[in-house]
Design a protein that fits this description.
2 domains, alpha/beta, seven-stranded mixed sheet, disordered C terminus, globular, Urease, subunit C, domain 1, 15 helices, TIM Barrel, 457 residues
Length: 457
């Protein structure tokens, strides 16, 4: 049975258009997207502006339990690697039930923040002692259950993770829960792909070049078919230096020479990329996933965003460590980092094509997010899943803003509650936020008993 809506305005084909008739088919996909229509009799009226949501193309859900808890320096220096050692403390303790509680809270927040699909880079596999669960997919099902409870789509990406570094053939003791070889990743992916759960899809991932044997990476790429394949790459200068010392190549250079990346591949972060590497990635069709909130929080550095944009490389955004959980803030960080570095304004705009900063970033993230999640279409277009966001025009930052600049205000004027309602697969999203928040709080109290005991604990 189809369902129909009429929106006062909607973001269609990269611009605001009036009077848009929307119809979803029985499978929850758009069968009609028709701008310029008079208000019909038999349709639900949305007397507001509506936007397509975005895909969160890179998430580690369990790290939501660590967000905001690493903002004190414990030594003379603090960097990504010291943060990682502390983050492992959460990874070594969290149970499947706690993971579901934390992930449900996260996914509900992501949906509130304008994402309706999340790509979960899933490397937390085994029990706290490093032994496989009786069901090897135990932690994956916890994530799938959390996404269903939060009313959000999920692309699960089980991760190849088999060594601690280029010169360390085994994992560190505090990485024991992550161990998964290529055949195990493919087996888990096959099991997830066979699940009848709605809104669940899958692909695979490689944690990083330092964490995978080259033969295993090739086996994974050969066995995954046309599903997406994600990999952390060139996030840190130390990673680039280690790769150069071990292989004679920079990380992106090594991938281009030895892994033959194509449109299935998503290079996560790609922070330290040379101009020639950016051009070569664009030529091979691979995408890039940028996580500006996390990259700022961890001190990763700034990538060459203008060149990525001009090269035509598919770009997506991700919440990664969960320090930010809405896409307007991610896009704001993406642009503001460039402004600070270059001491210019509207770095991402494209005057030649009359593309304003917010519109250009939003459209690139919309298109790139679809590829990252393994979805053929995304947005208010025929055949895409029937997802949309209703803007709250009463938010202080949007109140009275001219319609043509509404997206600019959404990204750069910092709305507090910009989305009034969220639709997923043709249904208005309804969740029990109180129950989700209660279980999240209980999980946090169990994970951090001393810290939860009071200021002096």
């Amino acid at each position: 049975m189809s369902r129909r809506w009429w929106a006062r305005e909607a973001w269609v084909d990269g611009r605001w258009q009036p009077g848009v008739l929307l119809e979803a088919d029985a499978s929850g996909h758009w069968s009609t997207v028709a701008p310029g229509q008079a208000r019909p009799q038999a349709a639900e009226v949305i007397d507001a502006a509506v936007l397509p949501p975005l895909v969160d193309a890179h998430s580690h859900a369990f790290q939501r339990a660590f967000a905001g808890l690493a903002e004190r320096r414990e030594g003379a220096e603090d960097d990504f690697w010291s943060w990682r050692d502390r983050m492992y403390g959460v990874a070594l303790r969290i149970t499947p039930a706690q993971l579901r509680a934390v992930a449900a809270q996260l996914y509900a927040e992501l949906a509130d923040g304008g994402y309706t699909q999340v790509c979960e880079f899933h490397y937390l596999q085994h029990d706290p002692d490093g032994r496989p669960y009786a069901d090897p997919a135990e932690m994956a099902w916890a994530l799938a259950d959390a996404a269903a409870e939060a009313g959000i789509g999920l692309t699960l990406l089980p991760v190849l993770y088999e060594r601690a570094g280029f010169t360390q053939p085994r994992l560190r003791e505090d990485q024991r829960r992550f161990a998964l070889g290529a055949s195990q990743v493919l087996a888990l992916r096959a099991r997830l792909a066979a699940s009848p759960r709605p809104l669940l899809s899958c692909g695979v991932a490689v944690h990083s070049l330092r964490a995978a044997q080259p033969a295993s990476l090739r086996a994974l790429a050969e066995g995954v078919g046309d599903m997406p394949l994600h990999i952390h790459v060139a996030e840190q200068i130390a990673e680039v230096d280690d790769c150069l010392a071990a292989t004679g190549c920079r990380p992106i250079e090594w991938l281009l020479r030895h892994a033959a990346p194509d449109a299935r591949w998503q290079l996560v972060h790609a922070t330290h990329a040379l101009p020639a590497e950016i051009d070569a990635v664009a030529a091979c069709g691979a995408g890039v996933v940028l996580c500006p909130g996390t990259e700022a929080n961890l001190g990763d550095g700034l990538t060459d965003l203008p060149r990525w944009l001009d090269s035509g490389t598919p770009l997506a955004i991700g919440s990664d460590s969960q320090v930010t959980r809405d896409w307007p803030e991610e896009l704001r960080w993406l642009e503001y980092g460039q402004r600070l570095q270059r001491r210019q304004r509207n770095v991402s705009a494209d005057p030649a094509r009359q593309a304003a900063t917010a519109a250009r970033l939003f459209e690139r993230a919309r298109q790139g997010g679809a590829a990252a999640a393994g979805l053929a279409r995304w947005g208010l277009q025929l055949g895409a899943r029937a997802d949309l966001l209703v803007l709250d025009d009463t938010d202080d930052a949007l109140l009275g803003v001219p319609g043509a600049q509404r997206l600019d205000a959404l990204v750069f004027a910092g709305p507090r509650r910009p989305f009034g309602r969220v639709m997923v697969a043709g249904r208005w999203r309804e969740v029990d936020r109180q129950a989700i928040a209660r279980r999240h709080a209980q999980a946090m109290q169990a994970l951090w008993p001393a810290a939860m005991g009071g200021a002096n604990a």
